[in-house]
Amino acid sequence: MFTKRITLFSLLGFEVRVDLSWIFLAVLISWTLAAGVFPHYYPGLTVTTYWEMGVLAAAGMFFSIIFHELSHSLVARHYGLPMGGITLFLFGGVAEMKDEPPSPRAEFLMAVAGPIASVVLAAVFYIVRAGLGAAGAPAPVDGVFFYLATINLVLAIFNLVPAFPLDGGRMLRAVLWHWKGNLRWATRVASHIGGGFGILLVLLGLLNIVQGNFIGGMWWFLIGLFVRNAAAMSYQQVLIRQGFEGVPVRRVMNAKAVAVTPRLSIADLVQNYFYHYYFKTFPVVEDSKLVGSVSAREVKAVPRERWPFVTVADIMSRCTPDNTIGPEVNAMEALQTMSRTGNSRLLVADGERLLGIVSLKDMMNYLFLKLELEGEERVNLPSMPD
């Protein structure tokens, strides 16, 4: 979902980050308000004033989204759900959950907290606007507070639509989960509704474009695509988590790992290992002890003419939590490590003893077979090299 993220600050123990796409959104919102919305409703002001109003309103929206997502995060923390922080991106913000909620009640309360927070903010902004208006506040101040009150109300109403993964969709999933006692089924139903809602937004966007409202239509179109894709991805994540539930790494690893020694030259490594086994990573073992790994990426960094004179020990990576995992660790944690680091093969070790290799390909083969035997639809993951 995200490109490059920048951590801004920590709030009540949650890291607040901004995706680079948010910069585009902030500029677009400021420009739209300064060039269109505020001049229409508050004519006769200077261009500088309109831009000041636009920037302040965009900053207020920034605060509103953080407040909305923070409410989700606080309820999630109350129920012991691990959170990865709050990230602002092109389509708003997200409180990053590292696992599914522990119960339907937790899911419902966590979901409803966001719209409630937005309604509370809308009421606060309306009250402040009324008070400032009674005190004779100028039109620019009135305009900014009116916009912030309205946008928070719109945010609350939009999020209450029962289309997963919107807050309303999560509330629907909680109700269905409580009814049937089946999280996977509840997620499938809610995500299909979310996908349908996404398609509806796409069609609405196309209709607006045809009618001449290109900018508004494009936003509806893009939001629709996002909702549809997010609904599908959320269902896939549930399938993956449940597919690997209770599955240790040792069950999906390859115990017949091909290892190399640190004294091996790069030329021999390429000729006798990379070109023979077609793996992109090999464990490095010395005196029966695992000391690291060597990958094709590290070999590529060495000039070809130096391959006969450079050894594996010169370029290998030492064992770290980014490339090594224990045999009893849950397979889902291995998958998350692969996604975070880009390593599609992890060394499986018990202390300094190499037990095997776990690869993304082997994990996905296990998952696909399990889902097929259980009658579930196949999932798609972002491609990663094996």
Protein model, in words:
The structure is a single chain. With 386 residues, the chain is an alpha+beta fold. It folds into two domains: 5-160, no CATH class; 249-373, CBS-domain. It is built from 13 helices and ten strands. The protein has helices at 20-41, 47-78, 104-134, 139-159, 167-180, 183-210, 214-243, 249-252, 266-277, 296-300, 312-315, 331-341, 360-373, and strands at 5-11, 14-19, 83-89, 92-97, 281-286, 289-295, 317-318, 324-325, 345-350, 353-359. The strands form three sheets. A four-stranded mixed beta sheet has the order 1-2-3-4. α2 packs antiparallel against α3. The longest helix has 32 residues, at 47-78. The chain is elongated. Residues 381-386 have low confidence and may be disordered.
Topology record:
Elements: E1 5-11, E2 14-19, H1 20-41, H2 47-78, E3 83-89, E4 92-97, H3 104-134, H4 139-159, H5 167-180, H6 183-210, H7 214-243, H8 249-252, H9 266-277, E5 281-286, E6 289-295, H10 296-300, H11 312-315, E7 317-318, E8 324-325, H12 331-341, E9 345-350, E10 353-359, H13 360-373
Parallel strand pairs: 2-3, 8-9
Antiparallel strand pairs: 1-2, 3-4, 5-6, 6-7, 9-10
Helix pairs in contact: 1-2, 2-3, 2-4, 3-4, 3-5, 5-6, 6-7
